[in-house]
Each structure stands twice: as structure tokens, then as C-alpha cells.
Amino acid sequence: TWATVKLRGFADSEDPPSPDQIAPELAARRADWPVSHYALAHLGGEPVAALGHHTGRDQMVFLLATRTPFRRLGVAQNLLAHWSHEVAAGAPRSLLINCDESSAPAALYRRIGFTDEVYWHRRYQRPDPEAA
């Protein structure tokens, strides 16, 4: 259910994802299971949004998706509020959210009080040994 909600939210579509899409999503989440938690929001008994976050001293939301018919209802905002209050009780060193700076999610995070603290970003890639 969580993977289906995530895939629908990211696809901006209510079409059910195919098993070929669900299998790799589940494999990725199972690989992260020891260091991650996953939340699912419901409205009227229907699953409508998904949140994934890494645990530890630095808590980080790495995934937040809301199905298109349920956007702009405060569901994602409530998921983030629940996450931040829940993990703050454990006194983490930081609460982080990973997103593109100019994206719609970044605007949501700023509206609810998160601030930019990373002033530079550099992407590193491992070289492909076969290309050498």
C-alpha cells in the first residue's frame, strides 16, 4: 500500500502502478528498512500520502508523496508535523528534509517553518570503471 501511494504521488496519476514498478520500490525500501521508518496517511480510510525518513542522530525525510486528488488539504503538512514532533522527543541533533531547492515541496517546507541551512551543494558520482 505504501509503495502504491508513493508511486501514484510521484507519477501525478491515479493509475495503479504496475508490478514492474512496485517490485523495485519494495526492494529499495527493504534495503533501507534498518535505518528508515515509513508512514502512511489516511483520509476516510483511504491511503492518500506516504512519508519515508531516515533515523538516527540526524533525522531526514527523504520521501514525501501525496496522491493528486488529496493535495492542498494539509495531509503532507500534517505528516511532516507528526514526524517532527515524534522525532523531536528523542532529541535528535537535526531534522533534515532533502529536496530540490526550487521545487514545490521546498516551498511547502519553507511555509511550515523549515529554513535553508545548506548553502552549497556538490554532487559526487563514482566513476564508471567500465568507461575507463
TrEMBL record:
Species this protein is from: uncultured Acidimicrobiales bacterium
PROSITE patterns for the chain: GNAT
**Name of this protein:** N-acetyltransferase domain-containing protein
Q: Matching InterPro entries, A to Z?
A: Acyl_CoA_acyltransferase, GNAT_dom
Q: Ranges for the N-acetyltransferase domain?
A: 1-132
Q: Which domain of life is it from?
A: Bacteria
Matching entries from Gene3D superfamilies are given as: 3.40.630.30
Which residue spans traverse the membrane? none
Please list the GO terms describing molecular function: acyltransferase activity, transferring groups other than amino-acyl groups
Query: Do you know which SUPFAM superfamilies this protein is assigned to?
Result: Acyl-CoA N-acyltransferases (Nat) (SSF55729)
